[in-house]
Amino acid sequence: MCEITAEHISRCKEAMSKPAPIQALRLIASGRATIEVTASGDVLMDRFDGKRVRDPDHPDCKMGLAGAWPLLHAGMIDRFGVVTDAGRALLAQEADRHG
Predict the structure, then answer these.
(1) Alpha helices, DSSP H only, in 6-83?
(2) Phi/psi of residue 6, each to 5°?
(3) Which of 36, 42, 45, 80 is least enclosed by beta carbons within 10 angstroms?
């Protein structure tokens, strides 16, 4: 994983304020998206709704999950791709906010 600097924290906070990370977190929490977190902190999608997902240009490679990169750094998922207590709390907060 990358070094955590003030700039990295700022980028992560900015990214988490957008819809894509929350949508990615919902997919992971629902079980619809099965992911892998690489040693460098990339979040790759292995399966979606039980079907293998691969990069069309590189069939041997898993695809990145759009918007998911800040989830690990923000503590919403762990290094095994499991939604953490903080991630579940954020999802509950979002559900309350949107009714």
Answers:
(1) 6-16, 19-30, 69-73
(2) -60, -40
(3) 80
